[in-house]
């Protein structure tokens, strides 16, 4: 696996930072300085190598001229030390350039600033051209869509979020239900919540179509709906698991009737196969059983059973306690905890999260300003570069009834030309959407809620296959799918099928989003995303695996081409 995630270490301020590494390729060879305070040259007389010297030199005969002896002594001392010469010298050493693949230099923040300067130049140039052509700095075709039925959107979005709150009272009902009844989470709770989530999703997908909203309003509502669906699912299924864990822990108060089956540990990145929690003490006891006298077997057996029960109670009790250790289920079943989870920039529910001590107001205000700046740039790119290309292609493909329809070769030519015009605008759009969501919006909510874990993405731009990209480009969604889809299904259907199911659900979600935006159900996005699986298999063959530069170039080419291709197909076909 070619993941580039760096090891981290915890600093004195309890913030995780990359752990310092010893450079593999030093940028400057170390040369020791052994000069005397008075600046005199002190030759090395011990005969050993110093600094960067090899320790070998041509011996000078005792009867050599003094000039030869002086030059030999000077060469030895210069190789052993570094001192200021009478004439300035340039230090030459074995080192690589910053962009060399073997370089340890990783700070390219200046290019990030250059990216924003380039976008600013593009925006200013575009506004000046619009002033020249129309007398106004910006076109209003997309800007006007933002205010159409704005109150409809606000009310619908509030009701959509509010209807997720039914999860909390249902969880209290499932917890209070007696063991074995139809309203426990294991019996009827899972089915009730699953049916409710399906009906809830269908309702809020249909609302924009019934109210005839613009595509901008549909984009906002469908994306927010998907986020709330994953939050509601995670909250319900994790608390449902905790309610069953609590019931089992209570049942152990009467060991004669309680189940003593060991607790199952679901697969995680550290434990990919999933294991059964067993007592190490019981394992040691079975290994030493041959040394126990026969008349003590009964006593030893009772002690072993007691140890197993204690271990099982410990495992179950630890499961009911937050990872930080300050809150224990069911103390988290409160309205404040639920509202806090809805605002936290994560899709996976936990009883408790790490928090920062205070809000960095300067950071918060800068992220809010950057969010609106990105939206401004996205609108300019859409109006000036994307929409005109799609409009022109649509007019050429849908000619007037009197004119002859374009031939198949002309259709392909128009489609190829449109895709070529959309490549660069969609690359910028993709980068800006990434920044506005994962850096600025999520970062702002993390600052507001004191949410300390800001790891919303990794260095996905260095991805060498689509599996690596799916792990690193959208960490919140990846964590949700791994926890609630992959890990939940793998014990029953195996690793390969669980991977396919995870990609399938992700592809269906993307297709729903594209269908709501374009009001067309074509399946292009679904097919393209499912094609990532055979591409991953191809990229991991011995002929392709390990060629990082080649695979990263292929990743970027397929990403840029795929975005323009999918948009063209949905709009024009």
UniProtKB/TrEMBL annotation:
InterPro entries: MBOAT_fam, Oat_ACAT_DAG_ARE. Keywords: Acyltransferase, Endoplasmic reticulum, Membrane, Transferase, Transmembrane, Transmembrane helix. One of its GO terms (biological process) is ergosterol metabolic process. GO terms for molecular function: ergosterol O-acyltransferase activity. Residues 1-67, 249-310 are annotated as: Disordered. It is a multi-pass membrane protein. It comes from the Eukaryota. Residues 26-36, 43-57, 276-289 have a biased composition (Polar residues). The chain crosses the membrane at residues 111-130, 150-170, 191-211, 217-238, 368-391, 411-438, 550-572. GO terms for cellular component: endoplasmic reticulum membrane. The active site is at 510. It is found in: Endoplasmic reticulum membrane. The keyword Transmembrane applies. It holds the Pfam family MBOAT. Residues 291-304 have a biased composition (Basic and acidic residues). Sterol O-acyltransferase that catalyzes the formation of stery esters. Belongs to the membrane-bound acyltransferase family. Sterol o-acyltransferase subfamily. PANTHER family: STEROL O-ACYLTRANSFERASE, STEROL O-ACYLTRANSFERASE 2-RELATED. This is O-acyltransferase.
């Amino acid at each position: 696996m070619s993941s580039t995630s760096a090891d981290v270490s915890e600093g004195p301020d309890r913030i995780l930072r990359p752990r310092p590494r010893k450079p593999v390729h030093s940028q400057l060879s170390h040369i020791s300085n052994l000069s005397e305070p008075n600046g005199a040259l002190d030759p090395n007389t011990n005969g050993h190598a110093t600094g960067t010297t090899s320790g070998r030199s041509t011996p000078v005969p005792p009867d050599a001229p003094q000039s030869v002896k002086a030059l030999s002594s000077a060469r030895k001392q210069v190789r052993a030390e570094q001192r200021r010469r009478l004439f300035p010298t340039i230090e030459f050493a074995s080192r690589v350039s910053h962009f060399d693949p073997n370089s340890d230099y990783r700070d390219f923040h200046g290019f990030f600033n250059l990216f924003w300067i380039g976008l600013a130049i593009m925006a200013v140039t575009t506004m000046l051209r619009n002033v020249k052509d129309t007398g106004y700095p910006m076109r209003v075709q997309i800007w006007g869509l933002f205010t159409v039925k704005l109150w409809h959107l606000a009310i619908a979005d509030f009701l959509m979020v509010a209807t997720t709150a039914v999860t909390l009272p249902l969880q209290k009902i499932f917890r209070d239900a007696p063991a074995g009844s139809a309203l426990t989470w294991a019996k009827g709770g899972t089915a009730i919540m699953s049916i409710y989530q399906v009906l809830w999703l269908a309702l809020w997908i249909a609302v924009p179509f019934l109210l005839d909203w613009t595509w901008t309003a549909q984009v906002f509502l469908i994306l927010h709906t998907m986020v709330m669906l994953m939050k509601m699912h995670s909250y319900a299924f994790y608390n449902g698991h905790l309610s069953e864990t609590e019931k089992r822990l209570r049942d152990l108060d009467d060991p004669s009737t309680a189940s003593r089956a060991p607790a199952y540990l679901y697969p995680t990145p550290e434990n990919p196969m999933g294991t059964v929690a067993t007592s190490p003490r019981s394992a040691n006891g079975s290994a030493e059983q041959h040394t126990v006298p026969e008349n003590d077997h009964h006593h030893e057996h009772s002690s072993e059973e007691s140890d197993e029960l204690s271990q099982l109670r410990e495992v179950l009790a630890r499961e009911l306690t937050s990872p930080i250790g300050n809150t224990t289920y069911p103390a988290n079943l409160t309205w404040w905890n639920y509202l806090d989870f809805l605002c936290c920039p994560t899709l996976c529910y936990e009883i408790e999260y790490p928090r920062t001590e205070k809000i960095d107001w300067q950071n918060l205000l800068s992220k809010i300003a950057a969010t609106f700046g990105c939206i401004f740039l996205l609108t300019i790119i859409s109006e000036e570069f994307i929409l005109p290309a799609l409009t022109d292609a649509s007019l050429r493909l849908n000619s007037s009834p009197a004119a002859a329809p374009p031939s198949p070769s002309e259709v392909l030519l128009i489609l190829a030309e449109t895709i070529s015009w959309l490549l660069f605008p969609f690359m910028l759009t993709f980068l800006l959407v990434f920044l506005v969501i994962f850096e600025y919006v999520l970062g702002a909510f993390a600052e507001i809620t004191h949410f300390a874990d800001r790891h919303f993405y990794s260095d996905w731009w260095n991805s060498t296959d689509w599996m690596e990209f799916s792990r690193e480009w959208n960490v919140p969604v990846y964590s949700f799918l791994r926890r609630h889809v992959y890990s939940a299904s793998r014990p029953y259907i195996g690793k390969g099928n669980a991977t396919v199911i995870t990609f399938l659900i992700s592809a269906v979600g993307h297709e729903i989003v594209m269908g709501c935006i374009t009001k067309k159900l074509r399946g292009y996005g679904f097919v393209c995303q499912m094609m990532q699986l055979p591409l991953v298999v191809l990229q991991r063959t011995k002929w392709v695996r390990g060629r990082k530069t080649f695979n990263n170039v292929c990743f970027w080419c397929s990403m840029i081409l795929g975005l323009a291709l999918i948009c063209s197909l949905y709009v024009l076909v």
